[in-house]
Structures are given as C-alpha cells and as structure tokens.
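Internal tracking record. Fields below are filled automatically when a chain is submitted to the structure queue. Please do not edit lines marked as system-generated. If the sequence contains nonstandard residues, flag them in the REMARKS field before resubmitting.
Queue: standard
Priority: normal
Entity type: single polypeptide chain
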Amino acid sequence: MSALLAIDLGTESARVAVYAADGHRLGQGESGYPTDFPRPGWAEQDPEDWWRAVVAATRAALDVAGRPDIDGVAVATTASTVTVLDRAGRPLRPALLWMDGRAAAEAARTAEVDHPVLRYAGGSDAVEWLVPKAMWLARREPDVYRAAAHVTEAVDYLVWRLTGEWTGSRMNAVCKWNYDPRGAGFPEDLYAELGVPDLRGKLPGRVAPVGDPVGTVHANARAELGITGRAVVSSGGIDAHLSLLAVGGAGEGRVSIVCGTSNAFVTEMTEPVFPPTVWGPYPDALNDGRWLVEGGQVAAGSVLRWTGERLLGRPRSELPELIAAAAAVPPAGHGLLVLDYFMGNRTPLRDPRLRGAVLGLTVGSTPEQVYRAAVEGVAYGTRQVLDSFEEGGVPVQKVLVSGGIRHNPLWLQTTADVLGRPLRLVAGDNLSLRACSVIAAVGAGHHPSLGAAAAEFAPETRTVAPDASRRDAYEAGYADYRAATAATREVSHRLSAPAPERAP
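SYSTEM-GENERATED OUTPUT FOLLOWS
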C-alpha cells in the first residue's frame, strides 16, 4: 500500500500525518519545540528544533500507520517565519517567528515607496513579512546578514532538509516576498530601494507553484525519518492559505477562517479589488488565474489562553469549567470590553503598535466576566476583518471555520453571534495536514489538479447558527470596540515604542 505524508509546522509543534490515497488518515504524530521571547514583541525559534520535531512526529505517524511506502510528501508552515542560514544550511541566528514585530519601522518604510508590485500588498508590506525582517537584519545585525547565504521561510528550510533543493513556494513568494508572477518575478529594484539590494541572491533560486514536484526525499533524510517509497516532495506553502484546499476547494465568496493562536482569513476571487485594508490580492498564489485575498488577527486563541491561564491563573485542565461558567454570563452585559491587539493588528488597521486592553474593570468583576469579555473581544476582531472584506469589495457568502475554535464552544458560538451569520464548522482533521495530503496526491500523480484532489478530499461540516436574541447586545459591544480602538491608539503607540523613543 502506498500513502501520502503531510507535514505541518505550527507555532508550537510539528504535526505529521499519513494518509491513504483516498484521503483517509492512517496515522498521526506530534512533537513540540520552545519559543524564546527575548524582548517584548520579539519571538524566536531554533530551526534545528523544527527538524528534530519533524523527525520525531514522522516516525510516530508512520508507526501508527503501519509504515507504508510513501508516494508523495508536502509541507505547510506558518508564513513569515524567517531563517538566516550559512551556505551549509546551518542557522546563523534563531529564526524570526511569524509573530515577531521588531521590523515595524522597516514595514513603515515600505509604505513610503512607490512601486507597482506593492499594489498586491495593499500598498505596503506588513511587519511580519520576510522583506521587512530582512531589512531589519541588514540594519541591526549587518555582520549576520552579510554572512547569510540563505534568507528563507520555514517551508523552504524544511523542503531543503527533505530534498537538498533550495526551492521557494510560489505562494510564499507572492504573498510575503513581493514576487510578481505576472511581471518581473523578483522585484530587485524594490529590494535595492529598501536597502537590501543583495536579498535576491539570498532567496531560493527556484520558485515552484503549489503542487509542483520539487524532488524526492534524499537518502539521509529517508534514514532519519524512516521513509520508504518514491517520496516525491511537492511545493507546499502557508498553512492557513492552503486551508482552501482542505474545505473542498476555493470558490467565489467562500472564506476560510483558521482559528488558532492567530486567526487567518483567506479567499480567492476571479477579478481583483485593491482595498488598503486587506493583504493582497495576490495573483496566482494558490491557483493559476485567480487572486488570493488574506486578512488576519495576529492574536486570537492566544488572547484566550493568556486570559485563562496567565491572568486568571487557571491550569489548562480547568479551562472547560471556566468556559462553561463564562457561557452563563449574559452577553455584553458585564460592563467589560477587551481589545484583542495583544500583538498589534494585522488587518484591516495594519498597525503593529496597537496593544490589548481590558476596559471597565471594577473590584466586583469576576473571572467569568473577564473571560467572556475576552472571547467577545476576539469575536469583534473577527467581525472587523470580515466587515473590511465586504467594504473593500471582497465577497463573503459562506464562512468556514476550523482549528482550535472547535474545542471552545463559547468562542465558536460567540463568533457566530457577533458576525450575525451562520458558520460552517469543519469537523475533525487538521486542515493544514489535509491540504498537504491534497498537494502530495497531485505531486505524486494521483490526481490531475489541485481542484480535483480538493473536491475528492473534502471534509464534513456542520452549521453553527447565530442566536438572534443577542444581536442588539453585540451590535452595541462592537460599536464600543471600534470606538475604544480609536480612543486608545495614541496611548498604545506610546506604550509600544522602544524605551528610548518614549516621551517622558
């Protein structure tokens, strides 16, 4: 029996699954790694830890699956997690994690440049993306940057560990490197204007569309992972963006929201629109001839985890009890408001220096009220993103949600209530892994196209309907959320400034 291997490198762990050729999961493994937060707003990991975790998770998944031969392999990772490597692929410094916000000044600089490719990014690069991070390295760690032979994303690093090939995903290149697949390709003139004229030489030499074969797993990696079979590695990409392949395929007005540590919103369009409140539209990022649009909340499940475990001091085993108690609190009737900008705002405000807040606290406020307000604040942030889609001309007709939200019934129902629209909850499987199985099946020749494989592997969903009786309360709460965002912006910017920049 031949099978497919799917690798998903997340924020906290590597998850690996083995799938049969028909999309049935045969086995899964997981292994974690630490994150270092050397300064407020910074986040780093060791790429060697990723590989060790991938090896452990792959071996565990293969053991459960009965060690079948592997026909195809694909990798998904978080976007904008940037590695800095020497010619032998050894890390010169820790990787800058996707949530790392140190390059705020560099991202702001991209907004001052007039270059046609920036039209695909809403007029500027976000603080998380590879180009601002490369600019920061060139300015703040010039010796490390000069020594770097490779500045890549996590997905490129894992593909190299698997195959020995430095090949970039076209999805990541278009969405995060200002690569123009319909024009000049790499915008070397833009890189030069931004102070990194040699960046092109540090990026992967080849850029491959999602689903295209890159190479086979080489002998050393086969031995470490315990893989047998053809093991054709195909070009993957960004975990959340690939989710469109795991919900039956892309379609006009079909929005996938992957709800976890952060919330990622993705959809595809046949004709582009260019509002400044979204990321994109990106041409040919996933499917040829279509335009991908992205939005995001940089902190979502992480806000709820911080509220429950760190602020309220509840161990993870007691969180279900806290969630149930918070569900009994009347919606928006507790006098509290939480702003979800704990790591800034991705879209629509594109402001990495916004900060979270809990407003309305009294000595009578209860843990249940605080937690409920945090859930509502995250849901208000979700609505803000979807509202910006529709206001910018991006159709939103069907919303599919997946990820960690399915384990938190209060978060799930509150999101439906605040949005005032039904949600389609994707049951069971990790969407990034399922999307990788789609990609691996295409690269191995099991299906002729991504669309055909996506339709074949489509998961089951169930509808979560909004409670109409809560509409007025949440309309008022959302209005307060928008007003409080505007009112606290100036203070947030002062508080989030590096210490020497703060006014006395």
